[in-house]
Structure to design on (253 residues):
């Protein structure tokens, strides 16, 4: 469904919202484009003076206020926000309210260029390549990239101090904790790995537990700290592969 109206009066805009959006806000997205002022109370207090903007009321209740420039919205409210519309002094007033966290926003339009109501369907999940998950998957598929004889027994193992990326055993049945980073390893990653190893030591009969930090690059200062703690490292380059055939050569064009 797609409905739109151009240069409506405030009364026409209100009728448009009540007819096409109000009865099914969870199934329709409302877009308003025009000259407006935004008064926000919530995480902070802000007042955005008059200007031409795009306001989006998404199907899950998310509210976004976009200016003509920049990527991020200048004002926003999370999913679950509800709206009420009214007309006063020939101006459309949209009040949006969210309960947890408590916040509210008042948007006053003195001029509307375009209004649109559309119902969108999208159940696809975003697949991101080049993340820690890619390296983790590589190790699960082929543990030998860490060392020969390594067996991965669990992914995302819960311990007291957090969530271990990979847990397994080496060829001598010694427990191995593997922490994966998608970029250059840092001191914080070492401390994280150290806590995980200490947690595992409390849960196993054998005091010998290995910890391996995996990253595309491990700086010398990080290597030294790992050695001081009796931990190890392995530099693993991630393979960036997206599950599609969009990457084409010049011959395809």
């Amino acid at each position: 469904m797609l409905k739109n109206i151009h240069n409506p009066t405030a009364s026409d805009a209100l009728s448009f919202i009540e007819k096409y959006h109000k009865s099914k806000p969870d199934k329709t997205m409302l877009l308003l484009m025009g000259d407006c002022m935004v008064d926000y109370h919530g995480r902070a207090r802000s007042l955005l003076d008059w200007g031409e903007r795009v306001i989006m009321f998404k199907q899950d209740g998310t509210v976004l206020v976009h200016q003509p420039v920049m990527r991020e919205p200048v004002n926003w409210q999370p999913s679950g926000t509800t709206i009420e519309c009214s007309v006063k002094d020939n101006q459309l007033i949209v009040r949006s309210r969210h309960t947890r966290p408590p916040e509210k926003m008042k948007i006053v339009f003195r001029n509307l260029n375009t209004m649109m109501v559309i119902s969108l369907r999208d159940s696809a999940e975003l697949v991101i390549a080049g993340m820690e998950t890619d390296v983790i998957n590589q190790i699960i598929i082929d543990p030998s990239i860490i060392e020969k004889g390594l067996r991965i027994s669990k992914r995302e193992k819960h311990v007291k101090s957090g969530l271990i990326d990979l847990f397994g055993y080496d060829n001598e049945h010694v427990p191995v904790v593997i922490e994966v980073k998608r970029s250059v390893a840092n001191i914080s990653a070492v401390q994280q790995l150290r806590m995980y190893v200490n947690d595992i030591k409390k849960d196993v009969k054998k005091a010998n537990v290995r910890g391996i930090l995996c990253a595309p690059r491990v700086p010398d200062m990080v290597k030294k700290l790992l050695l001081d703690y009796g931990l190890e490292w392995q530099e693993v380059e991630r393979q960036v592969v997206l599950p599609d055939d969009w990457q084409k050569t010049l011959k395809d064009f």
